[in-house]
Amino acid sequence: MNKLYKIIAAVLVIGCLTNAVGCKKFLDEKTSRKLAVPNTLMDFQALLDNPLKINYNSPSAGEISSDSYYLTDEKWESLADENERRKYIWAKDNLFAADSNEWADIYQAIYFCNTVVAGVDKLTRTGSNATEWNNVKGQALYCRGNNYLDAVIIWSLAYDKQSSSSDLGLPLRLNTNFSEVSVRSSVQQTYEQIIEDVKSSVALLPLVPLSKFRPSKSAAYGLLARTYLSMRDYDNAYVYADSCLSLNSTLLDYNTLKLESNYPFTVANNTEVIYFRFMNATDIIYETMPIVIPETYGSYNANDLRKQAFFKKNEEDETYWFSGSYGGRLGLFCGVATNEIFLIKAECLARAGKITESIKVLNALLAERWDKTKVYTPYFAADANEALNIVLQERRKELLMTGLRWMDIKRLNKEGGNIMLTRTLKGQTYKLQPNDLRFALPIPEDVIALSGMIQNKR
């Protein structure tokens, strides 16, 4: 896990650069006072400036379960974590280790956010501290909503307007009371809480954050666009995508990248990033160097610079691994960036029958990916259905390994996408049929045993 240790070291440096005063205070704290209760805005900001708990805790289970890569028999057998091997073949249970797992990571972050919200509300908001008070509370609300969205995509079925009020959602912990019994809400209630949190954060967050490891107004609009897209509420997804781009529509010209580098994107050079968030580091993604599906690699035009930026060759077998994370060496990026928002806007326009507008938005994005020594041939669509298919094709290519594919498979299958997942290991074929109950991963068994909550059906 040397790569993980490097990641931890890097993010600790970033976290301290984000809030030098807060980090110094934390590092200088005496052991005897390590359990001191935070009670100032600076204390609460320091809680939110813990990148390992706030920025690096997004579940990787959806990406592990998705169809962007495959493992050879040897790579699969080399995995030390039996839970990860089971995730890969969509086993019905025991996908998460006891005690230390992604569910625990999510709810620890939510507890941090609840601590901040409750604590800030006890502090008097004055003329002198109003900006900081707003910012700290806004960050906590945003991050709580972000964590709940990540979790509902993993542990609940796809949003369906007809059944969302009865489908099992998440336990909504909105305070710091450990003794409160966890009860699962509905999917509808879960999404309502996410929307309430993120909408509330918009008025509180700054236009420009001190660091992209902290959220901003445009990040909140972008997260709302993603949330509504997951709900297949395309009218609202368009509204918030457009609002996000009205504040930040910067696109990165891939011609400026060092494409020969193993990791062309860095925290410093990626102007498209609005908010930095990363998936948990796991062996199956970070250590095995999973092989990109050959059809995916072959779908990029030779003049499309994504082909060089996103993929590097495994010399021993002529396959390719993914090198295009917007976090570079720091891990798989799953935060908010303008490329995702352009694609949300283009998709919503296509679904609304606004063909010309949709393709114009898409071409604006793709022109920045094209080798500018070559002529870019823009897309043209004859009808709305063709426009939508083009946008969805480019969405998959552009947002590869960003944690969004699991959400997309689930929502598109509700639209009749008929996406079936298949793995072959040691001569045995495993399948995940469209809308299978296993698209809602099982909650860790120890959590079910301790809480008495209802487990997801298999």
TrEMBL record:
<feature type="domain" description="SusD-like N-terminal">
    <location>
        <begin position="25"/>
        <end position="229"/>
    </location>
</feature>
<dbReference type="InterPro" id="IPR012944">
    <property type="entry name" value="SusD_RagB_dom"/>
</dbReference>
<keyword id="KW-0732">Signal</keyword>
<protein>
    <recommendedName>
        <fullName>SusD-like starch-binding protein associating with outer membrane</fullName>
    </recommendedName>
</protein>
<dbReference type="Pfam" id="PF07980">
    <property type="entry name" value="SusD_RagB"/>
</dbReference>
<dbReference type="GO" id="GO:0009279">
    <property type="term" value="C:cell outer membrane"/>
</dbReference>
<comment type="similarity">
    <text>Belongs to the SusD family.</text>
</comment>
<dbReference type="InterPro" id="IPR011990">
    <property type="entry name" value="TPR-like_helical_dom_sf"/>
</dbReference>
<dbReference type="InterPro" id="IPR033985">
    <property type="entry name" value="SusD-like_N"/>
</dbReference>
<dbReference type="Pfam" id="PF14322">
    <property type="entry name" value="SusD-like_3"/>
</dbReference>
<keyword id="KW-0472">Membrane</keyword>
<keyword id="KW-0998">Cell outer membrane</keyword>
<feature type="domain" description="RagB/SusD">
    <location>
        <begin position="340"/>
        <end position="415"/>
    </location>
</feature>
